[in-house]
Amino acid sequence: MSQQPAHPLPSYLDPQHLGPWGIYLQQVDRVTPYLGSLARWVETLKRPKRTLIVDVPIELDNGTVAHYEGYRVQHNTSRGPGKGGVRFHQDVTLSEVMALAAWMSIKNAAVNLPYGGAKGGVRLDPRNLSQSEIERVTRRYTSEIGVIIGPSKDIPAPDVNTNAQTMAWMMDTYSMNEGATATGVVTGKPIALGGSLGRVEATGRGVFVVACEAARDQGVPVEGARVVVQGFGNVGGTAARLFHEAGAKVIAAQDHTGTVHNANGLDVHRLLAHVSRTGGVGGFGEAEAIDAETFWHLETEFLIPAALEGQITKANASQVRAKILVEGANGPTTPEADDILRENGVYVVPDVLANAGGVTVSYFEWVQDFSMFFWSEEEINQRLERLMREAYSSVALVAREHNITLRTAAFVVACTRILQARQVRGLYP
Ligand SMILES: NC(=O)c1ccc[n+]([C@@H]2O[C@H](COP(=O)([O-])OP(=O)(O)OC[C@H]3O[C@@H](n4cnc5c(N)ncnc54)[C@H](O)[C@@H]3O)[C@@H](O)[C@H]2O)c1
Q: Global pTM?
């Protein structure tokens, strides 16, 4: 009998270029020692449950036919239906969609939502297509993946280059094929179609809530604390506003248009108005412009990367002078930077926990769609805050027990929940 390698790779991936899936596999290997007897099931996490590749042909406005490659990956559904976004991007690959689906399994389990993890994508550049071409792609893609999605099977949501309108087309296409209106097949829908109040602000609000919990743990008062935010869009803008309203001082903000700094604290409401008027923080009058690299070296209580992945690297991590770093963006810190931050005593709240507010309110949207009964924004925010606080405290407890980072602890909590479900369900047949 030949020896099995540690995790035999699927034949459809190139072992020399594993891409994001390779990073995810390393993360699973890192938590395996903390899984106790559940480690027996860990191979389950190293294979997506279901991978669907579809051809998406559409007629372009000029009468020719174009074909696009589409994916839907369900990484794990042990704890509930698949849940995860759909992105439209010319560089989407299967490895990337597999990893994003796996990270959704982790995020959903870390926050204890009754979902597995899934993700979808179509390889296209939406800037090269008209609105009606994008609508045709969306509808054909939805029809093609219709065999595996559904309100109790797998529930897509918006991601990069998709939005509430995309979700409305997906919901309509699925409903037409089923012959019944199925609002619960996607989340992130327009309010007029069963969308949820509070969804737009949910991720930024979740970032703020877990930041406050981390601050309490670290003995840092939020009132009067300095806050530095990269990205002043949906996530960063909302988090900055909530910090400002809680009496913290947002001393610097950076986006694709520039970096602004005011040691006495920026007036966040006026900065938000400036961003909506001009498209970015650059040129804001009540602050000084500083260079992009200085931004990462500012002394601050909170640093919130809420823009892009890969921003804190081994090149700048050793100069970070923040007490608490809360990851609003997905993957803003590279693994090497993570080790440097830990050595320097920076307390990092990882993305899978910190930015889970969005999927949490997506869960509320789905629950409201099922019950056909809609909650007030106040109820939604209260429930969101409770779930985020509970998620933070169970991850922080595991981090303390094992003396590990919150990132490793979030993976331990999530993998434990997924594999416990796997174990009690048993193997079919
Ligand atoms: N919106 C959500 O519900 C949600 C949920 C989970 C995770 N996230 C993640 O949060 C991040 C931000 O998402 P969002 O919804 O706020 O997006 P957004 O488009 O509203 O805002 C993005 C911000 O990033 C800034 N930015 C872009 N390029 C930049 C650059 N080169 N340097 C500095 N800043 C730059 C933009 O100027 C903008 O302020 C992404 O990583 C996203 O994946 C978002």
A: 0.95
